[in-house]
């Protein structure tokens, strides 16, 4: 029976992901086990000297900004920035959105205190172990996103940070031998590190702290790192194919562009650009939705497009028009889902805390900095007011010229290719997800409903927490239980397998959005729970009364096996009960009593808080729920 179960699982994965994926994964595993990867990725730096520092400083390749012509207004009132730089100089670094740790090296996981071996070949480093902990807590510091705090502080406070910046880069190079240790494990992490080093090198290209010896050391490391990425990019292209391949392609393109003296620069620039254009067109649908079903990963792609599109323009080699079309569509999708009051979006989909190029004082969940920067590159006016979120645009797109068109979100939006439906009315945002999976799903969250009132997420997605955690937590955050949707008994909409794998993908999902004189409504349905029984369909209708804080949610679940309950779940914020009332009835009109269960909420990667779940249960097929403001 066990062998049959594994055979069935293997067949399901191959059918859903494709035989190319399965065979490549098997081939890569075999190369790791037999030592082939050690041969393909040898230990040891090239030790080359590429260019004199005088030549380096006179290269004419245009970057995102000219450090001598930055028109940013200095702001010495950025007390949070000053505090963060003080922490960095004291050896404490920010991890993801709000955690700070003092980590003495580049290989220690601050949560488990496990120290990864820095001289072991990267192919022998275990990246999924509960004992060792989530490897992202090692990678986070080595991304070097903290460089942006140092550089911004340098500009705003007129205090040179080049010595600190170059000392940290040189220390990383000294303690991370080529192709050894955890920081050579992931090509996306390598590419991101090189992009961030490139930003710093360009800002400090005229600094007296940059000696010939130091320049040689940094350029040699960049070459070795991107040589690794180029040799391993098929893994992300076939076995991952999401924001990883986009980051790596951009890394190759930017490296080839900005370091023309590298022997592989032309090849990397050409290949990187080709892959970047191809994957943008492939991964972003024509309606602007993204194949990873995640708002934060959508923002990651926005950040990558800012660099790719802008650098190609500055160097008079524009990307193809379809890339611009997908970028505009992606931007308008995010804008439709964005709360005007604070720039936040639903905490929907996987959120690993990624914010690649933080160049403002805004909070992590505020998407305005990145969206405004891409809008500036595309010459679009999103209708944002003047604020601190515009600093990123000045760094990355300061001389793009005036906006040519103004775009405002519609009151009613349907993104049918991705399966998203949005109502914007009376200071509220009503967001529903119902779609088929054409690529690997990460969360069982169809028919999830998010409700926002004046920037408050009153009914919310519970978030992600960690990618490497205990089985109970992993199932909760990725499963249906952490979403405002329906479960049958304790079953998820799809069947959870190991780690990120789901089988029995959702089928026949569809939806529509419309309105009348008095109401807006969304109707959506999907076929799921196929590991429970065939033919189970969840239909949901959400009605929003115009210009009122009044919602009606009508759930119908067809073909539920006899004796099983349907469970309607709600994840309210902490103040929901003080301001709103939620009541439910079954198909006969009988009132259902809400029960409360303990759950969790994660507002940022690595952060988990206790949070209540409200449940309505019925042995029938329908639950009708009304949400209104309290009058008592």
Automatic annotation (TrEMBL):
Q: What is this protein called?
A: Heparinase II/III-like protein
Its keywords, alphabetically, are: Lyase, Periplasm, Signal
> What GO cellular component entries does it have?
periplasmic space
Q: Where is the Heparinase II/III-like C-terminal domain?
A: 409-620
Instruction: Spell out the molecular function terms from Gene Ontology.
Output: lyase activity
Q: Which domain of life is it from?
A: Bacteria
What subcellular locations does the record give?
Periplasm
Pfam families, per database record: Hepar_II_III_C, Hepar_II_III_N
> Which residue intervals define the domain Heparin-sulfate lyase N-terminal in the entry?
139-316
């Amino acid at each position: 029976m066990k062998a049959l179960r594994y055979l069935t699982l293997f067949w399901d994965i191959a059918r859903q992901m494709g035989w190319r994926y399965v065979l490549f994964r098997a081939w890569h595993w075999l190369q790791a086990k037999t030592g082939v990867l050690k041969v393909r990725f040898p230990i040891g730096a090239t030790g080359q000297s590429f260019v004199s520092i005088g030549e380096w400083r006179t290269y004419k390749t245009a970057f995102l900004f000219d450090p001598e012509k930055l028109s940013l207004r200095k702001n010495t009132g950025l007390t949070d920035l000053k505090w963060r730089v003080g922490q960095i100089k004291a050896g404490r670094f920010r991890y993801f959105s709000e955690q700070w740790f003092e980590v003495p090296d580049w290989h220690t996981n601050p949560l488990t205190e496990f120290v990864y071996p820095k001289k072991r070949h990267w192919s022998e480093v275990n990246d999924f172990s509960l004992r060792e902990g989530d490897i992202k807590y090692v990678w986070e510091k080595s991304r070097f996103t903290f460089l942006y705090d140092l550089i911004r502080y340098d500009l705003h406070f007129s205090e040179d940070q080049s010595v600190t910046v170059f000392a940290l880069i040189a220390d990383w190079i000294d303690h991370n031998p080529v192709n050894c240790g955890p920081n050579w494990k992931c090509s996306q992490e390598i590419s991101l590190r090189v992009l961030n080093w490139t930003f710093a090198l360009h800002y400090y290209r005229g600094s007296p702290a940059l000696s010939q010896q130091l320049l040689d050391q940094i350029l040699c490391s960049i070459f070795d790192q991107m040589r690794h990425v180029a040799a391993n990019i098929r893994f992300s292209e076939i076995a991952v194919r999401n924001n990883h391949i986009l980051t790596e392609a951009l890394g190759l393109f930017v490296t080839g562009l900005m370091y023309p003296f590298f022997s592989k620069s032309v090849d990397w620039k050409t290949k990187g650009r080709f892959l970047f254009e191809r994957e943008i067109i492939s991964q972003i649908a024509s309606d602007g939705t993204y194949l990873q079903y995640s708002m934060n990963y959508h923002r990651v792609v926005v950040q990558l497009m800012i660099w790719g599109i802008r650098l190609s323009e500055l160097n008079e080699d524009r990307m193809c028009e379809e890339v611009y079309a997908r970028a505009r569509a992606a931007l308008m999708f995010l804008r439709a889902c964005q709360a005007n009051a604070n720039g936040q979006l639903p905490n929907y989909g996987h959120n690993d805390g990624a914010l690649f190029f933080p160049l403002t004082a805004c909070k992590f969940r505020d998407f305005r900095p990145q969206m405004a920067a891409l809008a500036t590159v595309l010459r679009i006016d999103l209708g944002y007011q003047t604020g601190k979120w515009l600093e990123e645009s000045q760094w990355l797109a300061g001389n793009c010229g005036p906006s040519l068109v103004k775009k405002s979100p519609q009151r009613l939006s349907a993104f049918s290719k991705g399966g998203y439906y949005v109502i914007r009315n009376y200071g509220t945002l009503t967001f529903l997800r119902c779609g088929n999976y054409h690529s690997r799903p990460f969360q069982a969250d169809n028919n999830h409903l998010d409700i926002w009132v004046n920037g408050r997420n009153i009914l919310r997605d519970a978030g992600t927490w960690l990618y490497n955690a205990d089985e109970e937590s992993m199932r909760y955050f990725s499963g249906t239980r952490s979403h405002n949707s329906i479960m049958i008994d304790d079953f998820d909409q799809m069947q959870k397998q190991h780690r990120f794998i789901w089988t029995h993908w959702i089928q026949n999902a569809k939806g529509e959005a419309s309105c009348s004189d008095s109401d807006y409504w969304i109707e959506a349905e999907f076929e799921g729970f196929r590991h429970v029984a065939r033919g189970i369909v969840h239909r949901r209708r959400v009605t929003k009364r115009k210009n009122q804080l009044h919602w009606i949610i009508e759930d119908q679940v067809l073909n539920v096996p006899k004796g099983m309950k349907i469970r309607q779940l709600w994840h309210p914020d902490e103040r929901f009960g003080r301001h709103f009332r939620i009541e439910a009835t079954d198909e006969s009109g009988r009132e259902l009593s809400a029960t409360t269960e303990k759950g969790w909420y994660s507002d940022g990667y690595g952060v988990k808080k206790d949070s209540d779940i409200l449940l309505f249960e019925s042995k029938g097929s329908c639950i009708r729920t009304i949400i209104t403001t309290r009058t008592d």
